Amino acid sequence: MTDSSAAQMHCGFAALVGRPNVGKSTLLNALVGRKVSIVTPRPQTTRHRILGLVQRPDAQIAFVDTPGLHSHARRALNKAMNRTAAAALEDADLVVLVVEALAWKAEDDLVLRRIVRSGRPAVAVVNKVDQVRPKERLLPYLEQLGERHGFKALVPVSALKGQGLTDLLETIAALLPLSAPLFPGGEFTDRSLKFRIAEMIREKLTLELNQEVPYGIAVEVERLAEEDGQLVVDAAIWVDRAGQKPIVIGARGERLKRVGRSARLSLNALLERRLHLTLWVKVRENWADSARALKDLELE
Ligand code: GDP
Ligand code: MG
Residues 111-151: pLDDT tens digits? Predict the structure, then answer.
């Protein structure tokens, strides 16, 4: 017996690539309909390759969120982030280049060159169209974009407002190869609970720290247990210099308390579980340049 009787659907990996801050993670969450990747106003929030699955009767699309490809990566962490994004691009059945409406920059050129080099088919998603008024201003931009590369499609969307997403899914599904389903039903990400908890804490920290130190921060869930019907989590926040520790903790511990409260509330809602969260701040000097640390954080 062969597999030929199995239902055929459009299946494959679609890599979301683009320069930092164009809205790749927001788009992933909007397409999957759940928060699988963290989002902040700061560039380089996403550090890992994160999978989000969209299941439809006719298609299974495995979207791969990636760190923004950026120039001038100096630290080991940033180099690893660029490698992660480049590898996801090379492995994809389809590349989804995410750009920002009316804002083509030198780093977009860098990403486009990677796409060209990969030889993978690509669509361009023009995000943040909610910021464009009047809408006609988009037309010359779309025309120029079409001239930059032989994209299979150009799709304007607003990931934030949920506009254009149905069209985008149709377009992407149609471009994926036909095969038997690749993934079991019911899953929506490949990331562990530990990882998702650590990421949510890092999101709240990044939002709270604003201009200060977020690039020097990592979060590791050290203990995850089930006690009296609730999840008990001990998480360590790594800072890469001793001087950052008091900044993260804040006066009388207020900042760390706010981060903990906000992470706990979001996780309660996301996981539909009660959660007891304890945060620690640990100095781990120059972790962003340590191969060992990057391994511990699943960054390499
Ligand atoms: P990434 O670095 O490409 O993953 O970008 P993020 O998803 O983290 O988003 C970066 C910032 O852009 C955040 O402040 C988002 O709220 C914002 N953003 C994302 N999509 C949209 C959109 O469609 N419209 C607007 N106005 N802002 C957006
Ligand atoms: Mg991101």
Answer: 999 999 999 999 999 999 999 999 999 999 999 999 999 99
Q: Is the CB of 29 under 6 A from ligand 1?
A: no
Contact (Cβ atoms closer than 8 angstroms) between residue 99 and residue 110: no
- Stated as kind and residue range, the H or E segment containing 106 is helix 106-118
> Which stretches does DSSP call E strand in the chain?
9-17, 50-56, 59-65, 94-100, 122-127, 154-156, 178-179, 218-227, 230-239, 275-283
Cis, peptide link before residue 134, omega less than 30° from 0: yes
- As residues whose CB is below 5 A from the ion ligand 2, the structure lists 24-25, 46
Going by their DSSP bridges, the two strands 9-17 and 94-100 should be labelled as parallel
In the beta sheet, which residues pair with residue 283? 239
Q: What are the tokens at 235?
A: 């998480």
Residue 133 Cβ inside 6 Å of ligand 1? The answer reads: no
For residue 265, what are the CA distances in angstroms to 37, 118, 275?
17, 42, 9
pTM over 0.85: yes
Check: CB of residue 21 under 8 Å from CB of residue 43. Answer: yes
- What is the tens place of the pLDDT at every residue in 48-66? 999 999 999 999 999 999 9
Residue 152: closest CA among 173, 170, 175, 129? 175
Nearest CA to ligand 1 atom 14: 41
What is the distance between the alpha carbons of residues 108 and 19, in angstroms, rounded to a whole number? Answer: 6
H or E element that contains 170 = helix 165-175
Residue type, 198: A
The distance from CA 283 to its chain's CA centroid, rounded to whole angstroms, is 26
